[in-house]
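Researcher: Let's try something more involved. This one mixes different molecule types, so please make sure each is placed in the same coordinate frame as the others.
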Amino acid sequence: MTAGLEQTQNSDAELIHAIARGDEQSFASLYDRYSPILLGFLLRILNNRAEAEDVLQEVFLQVWQRASDFDDTRGRPFTWLVTLARSRAIDRLRSLGSRGRVAQEAASRDVAPTIRNASDDAIQSEHSEIVRRALADIPEDQRRALVLAYFEGLTQSEIAARLGEPLGTIKTRARSGLSKLRHILEHKLGQQR
Amino acid sequence: MNHEEYKELLALEALGALDANERETLSAHLATCAECAAELRESRDAAAMLAYTIAPVMPSANLRARVLEAVRVGAGGSTIGEPPREATRTNRSESDGAPTNVLPLVPKKPATEGFMARGKPFAFGAIAAGLVIAALVAALAVLWKRNGDARRELARATNTLRESQAEQARLAERLSQTQTELAGARETATPSATPAPSPSPDSAPPQTDTSADASRAANRNNELRAELTRVAGRNNALQGDIATLSNRNNELQAELARFSTRDNERQAEITRLTNFNRETRAQLDALSNRNRELQAEVTRLAGRNNELQTQVARFSTQASELQSEVARLTRRSSDLQNELARQREAEPIVTAPDSRVIALTGTGVAPGARGRLVYDRRGGNVIFNAYDLPPAPPGKAYQLWLIAGGKPQSAGVFTTDEAGRAVLRGQVPAGGRRASAFAVTLEPAGGSSAPTGDKYLLGKAS
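Model: All components are placed in one shared frame. Result:
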């Protein structure tokens, strides 16, 4: 399994290098591979289909423009994509203010008929299973701190205020939670750099 | 902060949860500490994997087409065939207003950072600033939409342009083929038009054939010339179209640049207002804290005031009680001093060797009255105490008489108090020192030289 993942990671990086040279085909492949997971992630943060799709478009346009700046010695392509998406989504969330969280467009969650690459799907659902199981092994209060920070975009002080806990407690929970997640993932996925 | 303390911040940074100030100090440390930078990368990798816990959602096919089209337009740029990266760079970085620096693995704080204070509702007092920002956001949304429309139009124009150029190329190729054909036809036609007698007798039928060929070739030539003219005309028209589209393309690019500039101005305005809002809120918070402190102080002082007032009231009651007591004691003291003085005065009389004490009793006019007379026969001093005498009527007073040898001599005039008491001190006249009888009579207020009124008390020397 590790070998398979390694190969996927390599080809992610290869795709990005090809995109840097202006290869539209590689760009389309990267889009097809990661747009569903990124859209799910953006939807979780923004809670609004139209906004999430808009941000997804921005993210991929930025990937196209900045692919040559990507340095695979400095991080995994997936981390790069998710970090980019999260930062854009949280900017959007803030610029929308409270409006952003109001309108949930459940009706627009249609399934578009796009041909998916079966091996991408298999790898992603395997990842998904591993991360979900890892998260289930982390104590509830630590998990909550991770989710509030990463998906709600709250700072440690905001989390402390929302949960009515001391700041020190929140710091400790977030640290322990992420450290456990790291440990489990390193064990399960191996070092992928 | 030391290295270990920075290390503790890494997980929170990877989760994007650090507060702004810690974030800044950490980023300075990361620039110099490879160990922390490496650990942050690993923490970020782990955090990013959280995205896998969320069910993927398939984007619409429409979105895919839009994204790919946008990229293709960007790749094409304004001049087809230009290297995509350069064209993309300049077009994109201006048109979408994105920062032109490297997408940082340590993402930079965006311009909108802190806007609405990380999603918190506006605090009191900042409503005005909030309204301004809301209006700007709405304006920005309109602008973005127009920007998007313009971009789509540009994409359409560029596609048309590309199609036209392809057609032009196709037509040019066709034209050159046609011209080649025409040249070929001319070559064929020219020798057959000039009569060329053949030495061979077999050449007669071919000569007829050549003549027919020449006529066919001439026709074909004419047809091709017509076609050439038509194609050239079509080509010119297309070139004109291309020029028009190219102009339109340039106009759209200029418009995009203009929108982008306005967008940046709006963003700057929003940033400014956000900062202003943040400062105002900090000031309000500070004032509110100060107010709260002052209120606490006022409450404390009011409590203290009440306590003090209660104490003052208590002291005041005590003081008035003490004053009454002092007054009572003062009176008592003066009574005692008077009494003492009387006693002192009385003492020599009472203790003198020749002093005598005479008891007087009430007459029928004052049956309850009594009197006590002490006098010193040698010194002539006298003290007389009367008890239970009725009050003297207005204009009247009592007079004490010492009767010696039947002759009364006045020893003094006195009145009584409310209790019917009286004390008289005096000097017995020399003639009275041998008195054998004593009397008190009621006389005119100034006294009389000899008794005139009723006798009230009577006594005899024993």
